[in-house]
Design brief:
It contains nine helices and 28 strands. With 508 residues, the protein is α+β, with helices and mostly antiparallel strands.
Amino acid sequence: MTKSKKIVTTLFLALVLATLIGYWFYSTKDQREFSRVAYQDHCASCHGLDLRGSSRAGDLLAASLQHGDDTTSLMRSISKLDAHQNIIWPEGFPHTGTKALALFVSEQRQQYPTIPDSYQFHFKPKTVDSQHYRFQVETFSELKSRPYSIATLSDGRILVSEKVRGLSIVEANGLQGDLVDGIPKIYDKFIDADGSYLGWGHSLEVALHPDYEKNGWIYLSYADRCQLDCGSVIPQSMVKVIRGRIVNNQWVDEQTIWSVHTDYYTVVPDAVAGGRLAFDKNGFIYITVGGKSFYKNLHIMDTPYGKIHRVKDDGSIPQDNPFWVPKEQRQASSTRQTVWSYGHRTTQGLEGHPVTGEIWGSEMGPRGGDEVNKIIRQGNYGWPLYTNGLDYDSTEITIGEDLGLDFPIEETELPVVDFTPAPALSNLTFHQGDQFPLWQNDMLIGSLKAMTLYRLRIDNGALIEKETLVTQLGRIRDIEMGADGLVYIALEHGDTGSLVRLVPVDYN
C-alpha cells in the first residue's frame, strides 16, 4: 500500500470511529444526564428505579405526595426532610443538584416522553371528562406533512401552513386540497435530528387580517432563504412576513409586511425562528423572532433576534414604537424601529386577547422555565440572564453573566404563569364560541414534548385557574377556534400531521 493510500485509509477509519463515538455520545445522552444518574445513585435504593417506592420509602408517582408535588415542594423535601439527612452528597455535587433531582421526579410524574418518542406518537380518538365538560377528541383531517400553523375560515375551511410544503386549504369536509400556487419557495428539511427538522426556508405562520371577510388579506411568515446570493456557501435564513390573497388557489397581490437586511440572515436552523403573528384591537400586527443568533444579540436593539416586533397591518412602522428613531439616526440595517419587547428566548405562541386586545405569548425555557407572558411595550423578558430553568445537563445557566448582562430582575417582566418542569409550550388561543361557554375567554395552550393541552383562566394579570384538558394528544403546533364553536388543533407526528377537534358529547 502506498503512503498516500495509507494516509487516506487512516483518515477514513478515523472519521468512521469519530462518527461512531459521536453517535454513541448523542444517543446515550439521556442515560448519562446528571439528574437521572443522581437519582439512580442516591434515591433509587429507597424509592425504586421506577420511582414506585419500596418498604423504605414512598411511591413518587402516586397521585399526590405528602409534602407537595410541585417543583418547589420537591426541592424542599429533597433538601430538608429528616429522612434525607443521612444522604451524603458526594464531593463536587453541584448546588443545582437538588433542583435537577426535583425536575427529574416531576418530569417522571407527568410522564413526559423523550423528544424522539413524542415525534412518533400518533393520536387515537378518545372521550375526555374535564372539569366542566365531557367531550370527544376526534380526527378532522389527515395532513400530508407536519403543520406549523392553521387559520380557520367562516365557511368551515382551514388554511394550513406546513413546514416543508407550504400553504394549502382543508375543505369543510376535512379533505386537504392542493398547495396554493405562487407563495414564496419553501424548502425541504436538511436533516432529521431525533425527529426535529433542521433546515432553512421553512413555512411558518398563517393568519387572517381582522377584517378578512371584507379585504381578504392573508398573512404569511416564513424563513426567507439565501445562499450564494447573499455571499454564503451555507444556506442562511430569516423570518419574513408577507400578505396576499388567494384567488382560485393562486396567491396574488403579494406585499412585504416585515423583513430584515440579509446581514441578519443566519445559519441557525428554522426550528427556533418563531414567526408567530398576532393582531391587537387597533390592527397592529406583532411578529416573534426567536434566538436565531448569538444570545448577546437579544439585548441589542439594532438586531431582530429574541424580540417581538410591531408594525401596522400594511407594514408601515408606527412612530410610537418604543425604540423608534428617524431613519437618518439609525444604522441602515437596524431593526430597532419595529422592536416592541426583547429578551425573549423562543416565543412559540402569540395571540391577542379577544376582549382587551392585550398580546399574550408563550415562551420555551430551557429545562424548566416555560412561560406565559403578557407582552407589554418596551418589556424586557430577561433571557438569558434570568430563568426558572436549568441547562439541559442540569447545571446553572450562566449565559447572561458570561455575556456581561447586568440588570436587576425588578426591571424584567416576570411570567404570569411558570411551567416548571417545561412541557415545551407551543401556540395558544383564547376560547370564543358557544360550544364550551364555561371556557369563554380562557386561554387554551398546547405543548410539544408533553403532548398536552392546557386551559388557563387569567384575570387581572394573574392565574386563577389551571386545568390539564387533554394528555397523550400529540405534539401540538397550533390551536384555533372554528366558526362552528369547536376547538381545532394541529398535530405533528412522524413525517405527517393531522387536524383534530374537541367536540362536546351532546354536539349536534
